[in-house]
What does this fold into?
Amino acid sequence: MLKAFYKKNQIEAGCDEAGRGCLAGPVFAAAVVLPPKYKNKLLNDSKQVSEANRNILRKQIEADAIDFAVAQISPAIIDEINILNASILGMHEALKRLKLSVDFILVDGNRFKPFEAIPHQCVIKGDSKYMSIAAASILAKTYRDEYMLALHQKYPHYGWDRNMGYPTKGHREAIKIFGPCDEYRMSFKLLPDEGNDLE
It folds into this structure.
């Protein structure tokens, strides 16, 4: 059972990102503030939820959340500042877009940079422990998938409708055949024998 909050009686925003390990496309991040006694039996880490249920949850979260926001960071910026910094920047951008002033920030993972002097707590596997982080993971994932499906219409040969930009065998075969387009993160190891992934 996911926990509703980290501390009682404060406005908490849960943050998570999606697409950190992808070769192509932006990294997406979300910030979500849920009602204090929020309950949702479907809600879990986006990786543990089916695509159909993620899409149902997105509508429920957007309807039920006190506040939420989603941001994206482009491949060019990822290449410039590296994927870790881009993921954190995405979470900061999502937090900036919230209408509410929050008292506390819950972050999935173990790395974050302070945001506007608001206290924060990093939680490893937080998307399977706290509702607000799980909700952020659902929004980040569904918004990113939607973006990659639209991008697939422009670049169908990469199979982004199936791999969403992740380094599958088929995706790397397509890169070998067609080469990378401008949606790729050129600082990443697109093929096994070239370049380096930045962390």
Q: What stands out?
A: Residues 195-199 have pLDDT under 50 and may be disordered. The CA atoms of residues 81 and 88 lie 11 Å apart. The radius of gyration is 17 Å. The domain at 12-178 is CATH 3.30.420.10 (Nucleotidyltransferase; domain 5).
